[in-house]
Design a protein that fits this description.
Length: about 260
Amino acid sequence: MKRYAFSLLLLLSLLATVLIIYQLEFDLNSSPLPFILLPILLLMTWMSGRINFLILVTYTLGLGFVYLVLSWYNAATNEQQLFYIAQHLLSSFGVFLYWLFLRQLRSIFENNKELQERVKLLEGFSESPQLLSYSEFLDRTDFLIAGAKRREEKNILFHIQIPATKFNKKSIMQQLTNAGLKVFRAHFDVMSQRNRQEFIIFLQNTDSTGANIAWSRYEKELRNRFTTVDFPFEFSQLHVNSSVEETLDQQERVHK
């Protein structure tokens, strides 16, 4: 909230500076200010970071040099020199405020984008409230894997990848979710969406034989839901030894 209030204060200050410039009734026809100020503001709007600060410094020094040349060329009187100094100071202050405003505004947008990505990560891209978020899935499976190691049990991960070329990813993912909720054991098997293209199912205390039986049941349920001969996804059955993340990373390196 403080960031928005500060941004609003900068904007009001900038507008006030512009009003002061016009209220002083400068003879803008005899000044290069209109031909320099607007392009500078437009350029700063598209640029960001240190480049805008360099533009600000260059504008302040450059405009001062321009007014110095004008004063010398026109043999300006003391009144005209004061006129140039006032224009230089006010316009430089206005550009400085605009630089602060852009910097503050971009900071707000960047923080907002970061928060949205965090929320998306915590939600695990899950379209179904009955699924665990991906972060919860990792926490739960880490706990299950630690227990399985003590009991010397095996764990299997079903990894389902929807190709990026598919346009109906959301519908496919929903069918995978509904079928999984119907087939797998709610208190023993854990499901989640890693992202919008990857659906994962963790089977605890299961070997390859048990995993094949579980997949057969799941495949039968999926056949009732998909009308195509070939499934619109790729399936992998992975042994989980240390963590789900490490297992998936190894799978990705193999495919690369």
